[in-house]
Amino acid sequence: MADPDQHDIPDKPTGEGVHLAQWEKPFELIISPIEEFVHRQSTTGLLLMFTAVIALVLANSPMASQYQQLKDLYAGISVGDWQFKLSLLHWVNDGLMAFFFFIVGLELKREISVGELSNLKQATLPIACAIGGMVVPALIYTAFNFGMASISGWGIPMATDIAFAIGILVLLANRVPKALITFLVALAIVDDLGAVLVIAVFYTNTIDLWWLLAAASVLVLLIFLNLGGVRKILPYFLLAIVLWFTLLQSGVHATLAGVLGAFTVPARPKYDPTKFSEYVAKLMNKFDESYNRKKNILLNDELHAVVQTLEEGIHSVQPPLQRLEHIWHLPVSFLVIPAFALLNAGVPISVSSLQATLTNPIALGIEAGLLIGKFVGITGTAWLVLKLGIAKLPSGTSFSQIAGVSFLASIGFTMAIFIAELGFEENSEELLLAKTGILLASVTAGIIGYTWLYLSADKKSSPQ
Fold it and tell me: What is the pTM of this model?
């Protein structure tokens, strides 16, 4: 998600009373562009692409064996006879990715509460397109693998990689209307919800009912915290860790703890804007009084107390959901997802057997599912609901741009690989075929989608 427009926020204070050290201003000139770059949505996609390339290089270099050993490296904790250990690959896929799903859950709750999905009229088109874009790819994959054990990968081409897709569209921000970006965000979020449900229902192994009951009890506690008005983040965080562990032991995929935990995070602040404004005005009067009595800040305990109270008030006017989404966006985008790509995108490629690999029912089903299925499912559904008058195009967009976006939605990288790991975890050869198909289809879809939208943009009109 792109950061909100900050053009109306007052500039930082300058002149007398602002103390700048000798090297502070030059340092800010260096850091500011970096901070701006980091916060751009496209950066996430670029970093993900860079990490995936590194993984591919490692998997096809003399370091391939060391790369595999790194993934198989075990780490954990032990207390007496009790041990809890996972390989590095599982720590990332089952552990760190819970934070990714946590962000997905926060985005889902925000969009359903106040975003594009809160208004049924506005939400109809992206919801319908997302459903079409999940059903058709799954059917195409099933057609290629019907009656074979590999049919277990039917959920793979359903997924859209929100970071890659939106990252590419943001690169075209000066050529496409903002409403098109919003449409893709809403579509991708509904797609993520569909993927989460598919994982929960169809990619769950043997269930341990006692551990599942324990997980349900923890979830109930989280809900009670929400209903009881608890807005401190720490209790939710601690219980979410317990929820993750109980789900891991139950057989349900542990990353679902991220989504479930996110939905229990409060979306309402303690203070509404009017009450906060009154509160801040009183605090600022107290601040001025305290400062006038003793100007040396280091010796002014009263002034320090006022500033700390003001900081607490700032947190109280922000919903915990919004604060957590802001706090965790960068760690997930720049640590969790790249770590996932680094350990999962390394696919050994043999030129001599590439044709046989890409025409295997698994790879072919994924390629056709993503490239053809997503396009037909999203564009066809959009045409149908628009023809029936159930929905309307986003402001300033054209049907051709919706078709172009459907190719960007064909980029399945992160979530598709994640589902492939679940569907083929017992068969490394089939997993390799699935990842090869995902990578090829995602790269092709990104190029087609970018080119389509670039050429179809109206150069004479500015984005809406």
Answer: 0.77
